[in-house]
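Board notes (copied after class):
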Amino acid sequence: MPDVMNSSRLIGVGVGPGDPELVTVKGVNALRAADVVVVPVMDTGERGRAEATVLHYVPEDKVVRVVFALNERSDRARREAAWDAAGARVAELLRAHATVAFATIGDPNVYSTFTYLAQTIEELVPGTVVETVPGITAMQDLAARSGAVLTEGTEPLTLVPVTAGAAVLKDALAGPGTVVAYKFGRLAEEVVAALRETGRLDDAVWGSALGLPDESISPASDLDGTPLPYLSTLIAPAQRHGKRGGKL
């Protein structure tokens, strides 16, 4: 049965793609002001990017690790069970604390686990105030580090998770504007083929572990089809010809 009405706050805080310097001032303040900070952990238990970033700003005894089975993508029942268990744990924290922050890499409203958590909490602890603090995304960080311009003038920007398949990416590449691909590492060979077929290979760039010691940033033309880290990001800029500001 759902709990009685609750006035606690659950705040999804975007902590960026991994570089602790890319957490906003508002994000740091939200993490420090919260009673506890929840970080998502894979069921294998290793420390993830969100946790590592949070620990730059809050003491370890304030951090609560909650398993979300983030590496589960084939067994829906197991994934749902993990979300339910995680939601139940966070609900317990909300009953005991006025403010609970949940740290998520990137932005809490862009392909984030926080979305599923918030939906669960709305059912388990009615009346909880749910808020988000935006975070810098991997595509913004890769653009800054590589010099790739995401958009100019009237160009559209399309973001595609390659977990949906390389065919979806190919359709996007066939259109106008810049295309960003997330989580494409395991399908690197298919992604390179799609870039080549659509004439978008030469200007594309990819990166992984941005801002971390094992950072990799390279032209997509250097890819040889070898699988890459799962959280790899690709930018295929719009094809631009002509004068400065030509697409205004």
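Comment from the instructor: The radius of gyration is 20 Å. The mean pLDDT is 90.
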